[in-house]
Design a protein that fits this description.
By secondary structure, this protein is α+β, with helices and mostly antiparallel strands. Helix content is 26%, strand content 33%. The protein has a 5-stranded antiparallel sheet with strand order 1-3-4-5-2, sandwiched between helices.
Length: 153
Amino acid sequence: MPRVLVQTFSVPPDAIDVNGHVNNLAYLRWMQEVAIQHSTEQGWPVERYQAAGTGWVVRSHFIEYLLPAFEGETLSLLTWVTGFRQYSSPRRYLFWRPRDRQVVARAETMWVFVNARSGRPQRVPPDLRQAFEVVPEDEDVLALFTARGGSAD
């Protein structure tokens, strides 16, 4: 089970905006997709949350765009959980371009654990907390990732 999930992909044409670079909505979509994939690989697929009548909703997103990314470029998207609070969990993301070894964007989402029926926050259960190894520093994640030639584990 990966403490840091890495997804490498080529930027598709439909991710490009009128300015010729990756649209901000594409970054958000990729962040959500990789968070779901990471949770699934930790033993918590969407179906498990649904069966328990729970799930995660976004309280906030923060994205810092550092460099533009373009159609056809290869990007590696890294994601990890930086901690757990009573009802929430911050998750970080790095978009890294292997070609020039640059961070294109960094982001954080505050996810809130909720009761699916009421939509109200619910305590994050111990077995869910234990499924994820907390990784607090993104600089350490990138250093580990690049030192291993593109593998964060």
